[in-house]
Amino acid sequence: MDTIAFYISNQGLMHVTRCLALIEEMVQTTTNHIYIASGESQNRFAKRYLDKYLSKYSNRISYSSIKTDVGLMGQKNSASVDISQLENELKEYISELPSLVDSELEKLKYKNPVLVISDISILGVLVAEELGIRKIGLSNFTWCNYYENLNMDQQILQVFYDAYNKLDCFLAYDLTLDLSYLKCEIQKIGLACRKIDNKSVDEIKKHNWPSVYIGNQLSPKLKQTNMHFDRSVSRLSVNILDTQNHVAASELVVVRADWVTLSEALISKTPMVVIEGDVEEEPIINILKEKNLCLTIQESELYNLDILELQIKLQKLETSKYENNVGTIVNEIYGYLEESQHQICL
Questions:
Q1: pTM exceeds 0.85, yes or no
Q2: Is residue 84 included in any domain, yes or no?
Q3: Strands 3-8 and 113-119
Q4: In terms of domains, do 203 and 302 share one?
Q5: Domain limits for position 263
Q6: What angle do CA 324, 170, 30 make, to 5 degrees?
Q7: Interval 149-171: pLDDT, tens
Q8: Which of 101, 143, 295, 340 has its CA 20 to 30 A from that of 289?
Q9: How far separated are the first and last CA of the chain, in Å rounded?
Q10: What CA–CA distance (Å, rounded) separates 100 from 257?
């Protein structure tokens, strides 16, 4: 059985969550084995999700818990990063890459890998290069965007530029940062999220309607927030798996510019209030503002939030025309794979 290997950033759950949208489509529409390489917590989340919703395909999914990247060392934005410490972490990681690649080659030895998809780990690119198979980048940024802004050591930057420029193709989600430094073909693919289950949405609405979805990045601040809100408030479990259904079941979402939640809201046509403040998020927020797809507030406004007033302002927004492009993206991936295999045969 041919294997498609996903190498997924081990920074937070954004990357693994959006990859799950593609993986759940792939296992239901193809016969390939899916190999997921990411951090322990990311793999744990992926396994819980797939075991709950797609348990009958579990024998076609395997996991490798490995350090796929350093990212920003768990920080949300560059302003929080100790640049000297980050450079040291990256130098150490770069020195470990040869052994990490060897470890992955050993794990993949009998899995017949035919394609690597990276979101957005250079480890996956280097593994694919050693295997001599095609490699696709799949993201709305690479770590070069962040490291360049931080004026990182040029030798470190060059390692990342060189790795990303080994990609055969880059599938760029909407709300993407500048990728002009990539030499490969860049294909725009819209947005994707895990399947929204209308039955689950209706069930959530039955118990929690009307409701407002407030992103978990903001939850620590809620105790200090004076919300003017004529609705009941309930706290979702941190172990909730199907955020896409809760977003779709809400009247509006209040969130930072987290790509996954933004995509879930845009696809489900749920109005958005986005918190401004982080420099890295400005390009995404500006795109949304230019399209009149979100209302923005400062973090300080969160402490005296008038939901009813926000709802009045949200009526002036455009209705999102985004659709869930998961099926189209998967077809593009397989079309690219078939094309490359045909070229090999020739």
A1: yes
A2: yes
A3: parallel
A4: yes
A5: 198-314
A6: 55
A7: 899 999 999 999 999 999 999 99
A8: 143
A9: 22
A10: 32
The gap from C-alpha 157 to its chain's centroid, in whole angstroms, comes to: 22
Exposed / middle / buried, residue 195 (Cβ in 10 Å: 0-12, 13-18, 19+): middle
Domain identity same for 21 and 94: yes
Q: Are residues 52 and 160 in the same domain?
A: yes
Output b/e per residue, 91-101; b: 16+ Cβ within 10 A.
Answer: eebbeebeebb
Q: Per the structure block, which two tokens stand in for 77? A: 């934005």
**What CATH number is attached to the domain comprising 261?**
3.40.50.2000
Domain count, the chain: 2
- As to burial, measured by CB atoms within 10 angstroms (0-12 exposed, 13-18 middle, 19+ buried), residue 287 is middle
Contact 247, 268 (CB under 8 A): yes
How many helical (H) and strand (E) elements, i.e. helices and strands, does the chain have? 12, 11
**pLDDT given at position 227:** 60
E strand segments, 159-251: 169-172, 185-188, 212-214
Tell me how far apart the alpha carbons of residues 243 and 213 are, in angstroms, rounded to a whole number: 9
Residues 179 and 83 in one domain: yes
Q: Are residues 188 and 205 in the same domain?
A: no
User: Nearest to residue 1, comparing CAs of 107, 104, 113?
Assistant: 113
Determine the Cα–Cα distance for residues 260 and 264; give it in Å rounded to an integer.
6
What angle, 0 to 180 degrees and rounded to 10, lies between the N-to-C axes of helices 259-268 and 282-290? Answer: 20
Backbone angles phi, psi at 260, to 5 degrees: -65, -50
Q: Do residues 186 and 166 share a domain? A: yes
Each residue's pLDDT tens digit, 32-53: 999 999 999 999 999 999 999 9
User: Residue 53's CB: how many other CB atoms inside 10 A?
Assistant: 15
> Considering the domain boundaries, does residue 203 fall inside one?
yes
Distance from C-alpha of 58 to C-alpha of 301, rounded to nearest angstrom: 45
